Amino acid sequence: MNDGDKGAGPSARSKRADARRNQKTLLDAAASVFVTSGVEAPVRDIAAEAGVGVGTIYRHFPTRADLIIAVYRHQVEACAEAGPALLASSETPHAALGQWINLFVDFLVTKHGLAAVLRSDNTGFDTLHSYFIDRLLPVCTQLLDAAAEAGEIRSDLKALELMRGVGNLCIGAEHDPGYDARRLVALLIAGLRQPH
């Protein structure tokens, strides 16, 4: 390493950390706007929510498709990372499962808002469903296994069955204010309990 590199290390790491934080802020803002206004919401609304200029959005995400894909992946990652954290911090594995399923419901309601776009011809969207399954299925499996091993829930339910069931309960929730998908999902999770 030469003398010029000595000072660049921490500064470069700090800039990368700042860039990651800024991108997370943009993605959180876009997700929030997508939920309330749909994926066709004006970029200026996302920029205002994030507290940045419109040019900043386009610099990070040159097209709307780039932004939508990034939001989707960001939300999948947040949901995936939450599982182990909830398992470590919750009173019981069943409590962790319930909290994670609530996050999953939040994600699904947003995802349903993206559904029409995700079914479009854009090749960038093709791999998103596989990515979703690859990242979230192991997390759901870990939570179910932990709750079953603790004797809290029945052990014959597969993660994909639970995720599909929750997904089906969420269909249409964003269009019907009288329909409370979260309440029905809570009943489903409560129904997994082992009788004592």
UniProtKB/TrEMBL annotation:
<dbReference type="Pfam" id="PF00440">
    <property type="entry name" value="TetR_N"/>
</dbReference>
<keyword id="KW-0805">Transcription regulation</keyword>
<feature type="domain" description="HTH tetR-type">
    <location>
        <begin position="20"/>
        <end position="79"/>
    </location>
</feature>
<dbReference type="InterPro" id="IPR049445">
    <property type="entry name" value="TetR_SbtR-like_C"/>
</dbReference>
<keyword id="KW-0804">Transcription</keyword>
<dbReference type="InterPro" id="IPR009057">
    <property type="entry name" value="Homeodomain-like_sf"/>
</dbReference>
<dbReference type="Pfam" id="PF21597">
    <property type="entry name" value="TetR_C_43"/>
</dbReference>
<dbReference type="InterPro" id="IPR036271">
    <property type="entry name" value="Tet_transcr_reg_TetR-rel_C_sf"/>
</dbReference>
<keyword id="KW-0238">DNA-binding</keyword>
<dbReference type="InterPro" id="IPR050109">
    <property type="entry name" value="HTH-type_TetR-like_transc_reg"/>
</dbReference>
<feature type="region of interest" description="Disordered">
    <location>
        <begin position="1"/>
        <end position="20"/>
    </location>
</feature>
<protein>
    <submittedName>
        <fullName>TetR/AcrR family transcriptional regulator</fullName>
    </submittedName>
</protein>
<dbReference type="InterPro" id="IPR001647">
    <property type="entry name" value="HTH_TetR"/>
</dbReference>
<feature type="DNA-binding region" description="H-T-H motif">
    <location>
        <begin position="42"/>
        <end position="61"/>
    </location>
</feature>
